[in-house]
Write a structure and sequence with these properties.
Elements lengths: L8 E6 L11 E6 L5 E6 L7 H9 L7 E5 L8 H19 L6 E5 L8 H16 L6 H7 L8 E6 L4 E7 L12 E6 L5 H13 L16 E6 L9 H21 L7 E9 L2 H12 L2 H8 L5 H8 L12 E4 L2 E5 L2 E2 L12 E7 L5 E8 L3 H9 L3
Parallel strand pairs: 4-5, 8-9, 10-14
Antiparallel strand pairs: 1-2, 2-4, 3-9, 6-7, 7-8, 10-15, 11-12, 11-14, 12-13
Helix pairs in contact: 1-2, 2-3, 5-6, 7-9
């Protein structure tokens, strides 16, 4: 049931007419628990959508009563009119839920520049419909309503010791980090303060959503929200909760990777032997964003030379002539030179592992990406106004 698996939450997903397909396009998640704690992380893109500008302010007091999400339009670069649309959506939800509009977060996803009068009317009306349809098992409907080019919904549930975490996510393109990627709502019935919720969320996103770099394109609408109901009455061990939240976020992130637009390979880039975690991330990301490497993987070509060329553009500490590279378990490069024959590497499976050993330290990091395919180019050339 994703976001409604933990106690104290209701959700709904309804058809408001934003999508030409007639599929659900407005979702609401409401916190009915004794606590109304919330935390969120946002895109670091300087070009921010109106819902992001609103939610960044609304979450500052650590109180979140509900979140309203729509697909079928990003409400980004729609001027002051678009910000007023976001404000009116929050006011509508606040009125119907009898709470402050300043405690309502808003998310939108879809085509940038979409957000005219028709959009406003449908989003506001859809908010009312969704609130009227709220149920304690509405998480699955909500996860369907936030999809755009996704081929399937992304959901997760992690059980703790008397408490639980639930989550839903959307995203299939523009998957690159900036504190968070795509739209994600996570709920928990554990007892947490707003400061704890914020710290746990940032710790979990740092090693999950921040490490997903599918196509190097950062969205204007990225938001990950954690809502805390406290309905279990249990205060979890901090280390246990962080581990559980990291598990939930990683599960959602890898689902997003597996549904990336047009991808035929899910690539795990594991960097070891780095001088620092920052170096490991920089090296992994340089490979994940290298189109020549991604095209080679699409062609089932274990072209390790493109890996070394990519990592050579970084400022990380290492000797390029003392680096090992493995692909799907076969060491194709050692000490910056050829090792096993390329013919030994099987890159036909969708799951692809690339190991990079920098041999200068003990730090490590993992980055998730995808290959560059004809289908990706076609899908994104067709996704326009």
């Amino acid at each position: 049931m994703s976001v409604t698996a933990p106690q104290g939450f209701e959700a709904a997903g309804v058809v408001a007419g934003l999508k030409s397909t007639g599929k659900p396009d407005v979702a609401v998640v409401v916190n009915r628990g004794p606590l109304k704690v919330g935390a969120a992380v946002f895109t670091s893109n300087r070009a921010k959508a109106n819902p992001i500008l609103w939610s960044e302010q609304a979450v500052k007091d650590g109180v979140v009563e509900a979140i309203v999400l729509n697909s079928g339009g990003a409400n980004c670069f729609t001027g002051s009119f678009g910000f007023q649309t976001t404000h009116q959506t929050a006011e509508k939800a606040g009125e119907l839920l009898d709470v402050s509009s300043g405690d309502i977060l808003i998310c939108s996803t879809g085509l940038i520049g979409t957000g005219d009068e028709v959009f406003r009317a449908k989003v506001v009306d859809g908010t009312g419909k969704a609130i009227a349809a709220l149920t304690a098992d509405g998480g699955e409907d909500a996860s369907l309503a936030i999809m755009t080019t996704d081929s399937r919904p992304k959901r997760t549930v992690v059980q703790g010791d008397g408490w639980s975490i639930g989550g839903m996510a959307k995203g299939a393109g523009m998957l690159a980090p900036g504190l968070a990627t795509m739209l994600v709502v996570i709920t928990t019935d554990a007892v947490l303060t707003s400061a704890q919720a914020d710290a746990h969320l940032r710790a979990a996103t740092r090693v999950s959503f921040d490490r997903l770099d599918s196509d190097g394109c950062m969205s204007t609408n990225d938001q990950v929200t954690l809502m805390v109901s406290g309905a279990s009455g249990i205060t979890p061990d901090p280390a246990e909760f962080t581990a559980a939240l990291r598990e939930a976020c990683t599960h959602l992130a890898t689902q997003l990777q597996g549904d990336a637009e047009g991808a035929s390979h899910d690539i795990t880039i594991e960097v070891t032997g780095a001088a620092s975690e920052e170096d490991a991330v920089e090296v992994g990301r340089s490979v994940a964003r290298n189109n020549l490497f991604k095209a080679a993987i699409f062609g089932n070509d274990p072209n390790w030379g493109r890996v070394l060329a990519a990592i050579g553009t970084t400022d990380a500490a290492f000797d390029p002539y003392d680096v090992d590279v493995t692909m799907n378990g076969v060491r194709v490069c050692t000490q910056g030179g050829p090792d096993r024959p390329r013919e030994e590497v099987d890159l036909t499976p969708r799951a692809t592992h690339v190991g990079i050993d920098l041999k200068v330290g003990d730090a490590h990091a993992t980055i998730w990406t995808n290959d560059l395919t004809h289908d990706y180019v076609h899908e994104n050339s067709a996704y326009s106004s």
